[in-house]
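Instructor's aside before we start: the two examples that follow are unrelated to each other. I chose them only because their records fit on one page, so don't look for a connection. First example below.
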Amino acid sequence: MTKKILILSVFVVASCGLAYELIAGALSSYLLGDSVLQFSTIIGCYLFAMGVGAHFSKYVRDEDVLSRFIDIELAVGLIGGLSAATLFMTFTWMGAPFRMVLYVTVFLIGAMVGMEVPLVMRALNERRTEFAEIVSRVLTFDYLGALAVSLLFPLVLAPHLGLVRTGFLFGMLNVGVAMWTLYVFRAELDRLRGKAIRACVVLFTLVLGFGFSDRMVEWGEHGLFGDDVVYSTTTPYQRLVITRWKDDLRLYINGNLQFSSRDEYRYHEALVHPAMQALPWAKRVLVMGGGDGLALREILRYPQVEEVTLVDLDPAMTHAFATRPELVKLNQGSLKDKRVKVINADAGIWLQKEAGMYDVAIVDFPDPSSFALGKLYSVPFYGMLRKHLAANGLIAVQSTSPFFAPNAYWTIEATLREVGLQTWPYHLYVPSFGEWGFIMASPQGRFVPPTSYRLPMRYLNGETTRAMFDFPPDMPRRPMAPNRLDTQSLVREFEEDWRQVIR
């Protein structure tokens, strides 16, 4: 029976160890961007720390193996359980020491997790278990625990519990292992009362944190965004936060501003209307990204439009903007229009399966701050998109800032040209963002910037449109290589550009 308890402990502690690693990677990706870099460095730090912990486990005396195992479980439970909350609060309220706190936390957890399995193996060895059986059983349950969490984390835990509450949950599981071990092996342990009190104190702390997780997140997000948070959710794909200050609604994805309701009309008029005005016969329109329904709102103003297909990865995004009254008012109920078909899918995968043709394509993805987003600005993606565009159709692409991120901007333009599209770069000033850029593209190269508009506009007219397609001397064209899928140079250019701007 005691052997089974120890083996089961391996399953639980392996699950908890991987969970803390995934939480740190996901949280740092949300807050810092570049998921590949964050996960790579965190995994490397964690595995190195496990090796350090495994090495130092040899200094634990044989008679103290179970006692130290319990101590380590309590320490891992406390530090790991508090890790997500601590990291989030550090980023939102302190900022500068976040990376140091992140890697110190990952190292401490990894070192203690690295000690767990050797101690369990020694405990089994003391109970006269065959060495081959020790290795096979321990490693089997260690890997099974890792598999269980790797499946549960993205599908259940992160989207439904959130990262902070998930951290507290796994911390409680570590404490549960310590308390169960303490009970089962009570005859072999000394100072039971002291260990039991420590376990109860740690468990109480974690339960309290679990219960107040939502308040901690709200408090942290208030420090991060400054305004009142009216809606927030963590999905398998991203962190969505909507804030309000007076009459200004703002959407943030992974901490990055996507729009302000005070000036979003400038952005969306520029994104949509030059293409729609140039093609008065356009009936079928494709919108990729744009789950907020704001580009859709502008497209639906044209009476000739018969069908609009909107492809956005995150159902939480489109659901919020289709149901929350303040957001529905902002997009004028565009997501519920009978001409609109909403598809929640990966845009690249959907394009491979889609057979339809479109007159206009509006590409409104978030900036290429990660490799997951960078693939949506790549040669293969634009090549697939071109196949679904009418010969004299138009594509309008959100393309980040030509002033703050010029290398990234002109890389996107070079990528569109690489697949045989003619391009017309343009830009405008959006107060919330600064100077922002778009690119018009067409297979046949017949686009002429509009000199007037059939519909009334708040910002666009002939003069402002003419200015949009004129680049001043401080925003010159740059010769850049296209963004290919295997290298994703765009992500590196984007990060380097903004690193020069953000202090």
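Example two begins here.
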Amino acid sequence: MLAAINGFSPFIFAIVIPLAYPFMVPLGLHWPINAVMLLNIQTLGYDFIQGPMGAWNFACFGATAGVLVLAMRHRDTQMRQTATGALAAGLLGGISEPSLYGIHLRFKRIYPRMLVGCFVGGLIIGTGSWIMSLPDGITTPAFVFTSLLTIPAFEPIGLYAIAIAGAFFTSMFLVMGANFRTPEQQAEFEAVRDAAEAAAVAEHVAPAAVEAGEARAIDASEPSAAAATAATATALLERVAIEVAAPLDGEVVPLSEVPDPVFAGGTMGPGVAIIPAGDTVYAPAPGVIAAAQPTGHAFGLVLDGGVELLIHVGIDTVNLKGEGFDVKVKNGDRVELGTPLVTFDRKVIEAAGYPLITPVVVLNADDFGDITPVLEGTVTAGTPVITVLPKRPATDAPP
């Protein structure tokens, strides 16, 4: 059938193959095609499938390159490492699976842009084959993985190189321009990243404060991590429990009731959710603002004692782009229990159709022991709703 399509129109074949492969590979349906390639080489002396397949592969690698650039720009260490390995495997080994399973299938915004790259690469091959009167399009006498190292295996090499470059850079620039995360996912990532960076700096500074054994005044003008150092060191030494209060009036419910799988499944961390009764979010404990989103929908805090906390006001409210939110704090501000963080207009959020339910999540749960919701039902702001216990040292474990 593939030979029939290519014999009827190499132009159509060159476009169909790159567009089909992104859906065949995740299902493993590309493996039977490999047998057809080998049979073509055995019977015809060349194969006509691998050329168009190269357009798909390089569109895939280009999307990964776009993710890598964004990861570096966004200071996303984990994604930068994943994308670097996947891109190396692709460009040098012609292997698409690390890109697909490690990145592309996790973020729904990538595939449509990658498909455009596939189409562009296939269109270049099809058009070039028509202009050059190539009866079988781009061919190769060997079974190879389509990587940078195997470009010389294809004929005509110039047309193939132009096609895979077009596929690669189209996907790369489209992903870079649109981002691979949704606005909601990006805002959540930035809140987590900023809180983690602030906590990392605090952990670096805290040992000096412990060794000196001196209490010092905390100045609100100091950087966020240094401002929390003394209290963090004290909590670590005394091994006291940290109480997180309700940041707003309302009804406390389990995280599982949040209509978002990331929060409901505990991916972000343990905590509770609150269905607001009021319109103001307050600091749930003394600490420092690590990330105050200008849209007002999310706040990352590093509490005294080192707890990294995310307060996410409503679900998908980032799409309001700040409408209905009046932010009261900025990054680096020192806050106390009850300091107002943001007020929001319930009518604006409800009119837009977004749930008001507000997750309150501990992001660095692995740094602590038990994290326990202590209350459900109606609460007022300032009432403890989560208890965070310090991690027991190994020497404290029972024999």
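Residues 202-238 have pLDDT under 50 and may be disordered.
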